[in-house]
Amino acid sequence: MSDTKSIMIVGVGGQGTLLASRIxxxxxxxxxYDVKMSEVHGMAQRGGSVVTYVRYGxxxxxxxxxxxxxxxxxxxxxxxxxxxxxxxxxxxxxxxxKQVIEPMPVITGAMEYPENISEKIREFSSNIVEVDAxxxxxxxxxxxxxxxxxxxxxxxSTDFSQEEWLDAIKETVPEKFVDVNxxxxxxxxNK
Length: 191
Fold this sequence. Notes:
The chain has eight helices and six strands, in the order βαβββαβααβαααα. The chain has helices at residues 17-30, 78-84, 104-107, 117-121, 133-140, 146-155, 162-172, 178-189, and strands at residues 5-12, 34-41, 49-57, 70-75, 88-97, 128-131.
């Protein structure tokens, strides 16, 4: 069995998934891992699906995560959690932000937003953490810090210390946003 770990960060364009993946990537590189990342944007600037594959270990051949291979799925939105749930390992963890962002087909009335998403996701994994990351970000002082609040929740499921994560945030986030992002991370970490 490979020593490679796989994390998927999934959400909707504009939610900060790419910053979250950069924070994670910077931490992993600093820890000396071979890191492969791949970002897929589906009309990201218009609220479309965004997924980042992050794989790390001693030697990683490919950035792509296959179905049933993700150790963690960090989902910034409920429907995106459901869309990618089949990628989780049997013993993997799904961390899902309890936020709904309606896609264009729902907005136009062509489709309905699915009901009972949590129950549907449990068909793939019973290890689900549901988080109201917007309230955590607001406690920290900025609604846009949802992404880093979610990173804080995920950080407890990794082998890295709180201090290592905070260092990665300081090194990745623009200086004027460091304080609010540290607060958001801590809100998520202490949840």
